[in-house]
Amino acid sequence: MLEARLVQGGMLKKVVDAVKDLVTEANIDVSSSGFQLQAMDTSHVSLIAMHLRSDAFEHFRCDRAMSMGMSLANLAKVLKCAGNDDIVTLKANDDGDTVTFMFESPKEDRVSDFELKLMDIDSEHLGIPDTDYCATVTMPSGEYARICKDLSSIGDTVVISATKDGVKFTTSGDVGTANVTVRQNTTADKKEDQTIIDLKEPVALTFALRYLTSFAKATPLATHVTLSMTRELPVMVEYAIQDMGFLRFYLAPKIED
Amino acid sequence: DEKQPTLKEFFQIR
After folding, report:
1. Mean model confidence pLDDT for chain A
2. Strands A196-199 and A25-31
């Protein structure tokens, strides 16, 4: 039996909206540690890893670990019916083939419930090793989204290079070339405007812009995004889900043929 | 020329 009551139900909508275009269906694994999701896009170039910890929930009961396979488009349809401030409660039986979502308005004057059909999904789980990253950049999520959008209008791939001077995003295409450099800024008046660069050694990697742009759909989740890079390894793009968990995206770099 | 490897080429299948 699963029962999970999330006061900030709007958070769930933001998570699903952030990933539904990248991954069409996924298993949501539920255990005593909370909700976890790991899924790759159809081309197996990028991966989503999400964890919503059980202590994020006002009430959390999970008698037996279970895997709930869902169409994320259908899940998004259901969650669209929830108000942004609604309290969301998920309920499922151990051997059931449905999950029920209950939405309560903050004033408790409206209650609705939706039953979503579950499906069997074969998914491959990747073991992601703990990595000591050469460069970790924490920047405003809106700035990251803007850079991805601006550079996408010029080119298809971006070189992200982190040096002691800052982090440079470079692209080129038929129009010409574009460079955006983000420098460390820890003295901004507002904390949400700060950029922190932790550099152990310089690193430069090339990525397909369309995936990085897709990750920016998570912008409403957090004021900041963290890019973690190491030579010849996938970049990790992380959005914190407040103090309740995280949404991470991994993207394989392009390499010289 | 650049090629786009999959994630499996970096991470192992668990």
Report:
1. 96
2. unpaired
